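Q: Sequence in, structure out?
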Amino acid sequence: MTADLDGRDPDGLPADEPRQGGPALAVAAGAVPALIGLAALWPAVGLGLGSLTEPGPGLWPAFVAVLLVAAGAVIVRGALTARGTADTEAFTRGTAAVALGAASLAAYTFLFELVGFEIPTVLLLAGWLRFLGGEKWITTAVVAVLATVAAHLLFITALGVPLPHLIGS
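A: Exactly. Output:
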């Protein structure tokens, strides 16, 4: 985007300020987390909520899902007012990086259960370091492997967390 002599972009906005996304993106910014929360609530309830004195495995995931739905609803409500749409930025290259990060986390959770802890963790860290962080391949490889080894030693070996894993099975 080029700025003219008075420091404004072609749309008349100050060149150093992000472009506004408008009302549709403002609503989407709240609707997406609300929908994710609703989608997460179903399996959380299926795990069993238990009670406050004897919580079931789904209680905290359900709590977080409800918070997502509530936060999304507040954002949508704010987006439907005149005040809410001015705060929404248009999609940028950074938006794609966030979407890629979220998609890679979804793939990680799927692969985590399928093949264990180690391989998905190395792949996730390598992808983030190289493609989102722009690190060199050697740095990426060393950090991804060492961080995975450290996490394995901490959670599986030292703390005995029952994670699905390949090494030391």
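The first helix runs from residue 23 to 47.
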